[in-house]
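Cont'd.
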Amino acid sequence: MSVFSRFLVLCIFIFPLAPTLLTSPVHAQESPYIVAYDHYLEEPGNLEIEYFSTFGTQRQANNFHSFWMEFEYGATAWWTTEVYLDGQTTFNESTLFTGFRWENRFRALKHEHFINPILYVEYENISGADKIMKEVEGHDVEADYAVPNSELKKEQKHELEFKLILSSTVKGWNFTENTIAAKNLTGGVPWEFGYALGASRPLALKASAKRCNLCRENFIAGVEMYGGLGDRYSFGLHDTSQYLAPVIAWNLPSDWTLRLSAGFGLNDNSHRFLLRWGLSREITGFGSMISRIFGGHK
Amino acid sequence: MKACVAALSVMITFLGVSLAFGRQEKEPRYKYQKDGLVYAEIAKAPEKARAKRNPMDKDPDALAAGANLFEQHCSECHGDIGEGGKKGPSLLAPEVQNAEPGAIFWILTNGVVRRGMPVWSKLPEPQRWQLVRYIKSLGGLPAKPENPPVPTP
């Protein structure tokens, strides 16, 4: 694939951020997590458009840069639905669109409790070349990514993924634990399991009297740990990859959120280093906007 | 190619969902003013929550900080001065203004999820109390600060 084609693919992924420049502001208070989820859903009627990148090192093959767009919509106060479009570039090989995901998160309880459960259901239609590593499950290991794109893209996955998200916020700290169970609907692949843990806290709990970009309360720092837990026939940490990643989010008053994460592989099966970053913006009242365009209420 | 078509189908479905729920937001503004049920949620706050005192009552910056937070997180639904909007009830109503600060804090923390008000516990506790201070001020003080806050680097 030529440099121009690669540039075009990246532009297609970044283009959906353009409408966010024209919309009314809403200040985001986004968590810094890139892999783990907490129990906070999108506000109803709002659409959040997000772009994420992961640069991954690869032993015995080429490093890669994977990227994805997320369109996260608050259908109700208890239901958030999200679409992902995934792609990747493996250096000295090729750039590919690798598929899409449709994710739904449901708040199980009406009120806030010490532990707040969220049910997560996702359908994935992706190729074997997908490298976004939005979750690590089963026996996913670094060596799987060493296969050339031309081979990997031949494998097509239709996967159902379930998560139980248990999240708690105490004295400004958020603690979250995600348990993952995934089943590839094609072929006789067994159920695979994984986990993600996260802890984070804003650098200041009180808001400043003046709006500012560099106020401490605009920064949320934390750490994520995630990895596979094997499959139905070989549950456990054997032959799995595990990661630890400090994370930080900068919620700008101009409604943009920047996230940065440096992930470190904890065993020989893991990529040594994953650098992730993301940019997002929330469009307030997106549901009403679309409704008006199609002749809904004025 | 197949994947692109599938992705397009999913995007169209997603747009459909947005439309369907966008249409549900047709609730006229007055509904909230007349619908006492929405304020009944305040009465559900437990006694222990009501009894809490606002630790930001004596904080000189709390009102201005609360005004900022209100503009950022609340005005979209409740209106610029809390007068009520298409999605949220008026906060100038006596049911809100006469409520204990602890009860308003409880509503902010727990949301009214089935009526579309999200949980705001993602804002740290001091920020929620700053918001309570500002909301309680809406009944008596000028609606907006005289000198609106200006972003500074």
